[in-house]
Amino acid sequence: MMKSLDIFNTDWEGIEALLKTIGLSLAIIFAFYFLANILQKFLKKRLLVRMDDPLLANFLSVVFRLIIILLGFLLVFRIIGLTGLVSGLLAGAGITAFVIGFALKDIGENFLAGILLAFKRPFRVGDIVDINGMRGVVLTLNLRDTQIKTSDGKDVFIPNATIIKNPLVNFTIDGFLRYDFIVGLDYGSDYQAARALILEAIQKVPGVLMDTKTPKVWVSDLAESTLNLQVAFWVDTFDRKIADMEVKSQAIIQVLTTLEKAGYNLPARVLEIKNYRDQPIKSS
Q: Gene3D superfamilies, per this entry (predicted)?
């Protein structure tokens, strides 16, 4: 009988207030979460129109989304009365803060490196880069890492701090990329005529630039069996109609076919053997 009476003595008003506070807190968190997502999409779209840089626009919109969510949590803390508690914990937990800060050092370092990369912009989405020996196409810049896709289809996530600390090679930032290959002519050939034929042949290859950057041919080396000519040409990395490797393949085929039709000999390595003692040479 006494236990049943205890039920009526329960502080129902306090429970009701607590449930209302919890419900309001959850509603605020969800509202700020959805608001942050909507504002992120809106901000990203506006930034893309203004700056034409998907990498920076995506990074700034993500940071803005996190700030909105953080404001939502701070508002919840104020409603449930944890503002003083949080301040006390932050003021009195020096050792704990040091330990947590040390444990999260890499995360903070990568976050700050991401901010530097977003504003310095050493690469853009679609650029071909080489980062610490890893070469691929830039897909996105996140708060912690940068995602690139290698030529064999692998997705590599490189910490932003690693990019800041190591040399970065961007092959396509200005829209021009040079390719070259070697052609070995037989000694005694008409070298000047061969150079002219090579230039004429490579100009017929689709994708080879002829205006701002022109093909070049020069003597690179006096090899054992051949006089080596280096053929260099440029492609437009902003033009994705023809892949760079396809342009290079067609250039090599076009040059070799033209030289062979003109009667030039392209020998392999020739090994010269001299017998000073006039003794028979044994061969297996």
A: 1.10.287.1260, 2.30.30.60, 3.30.70.100
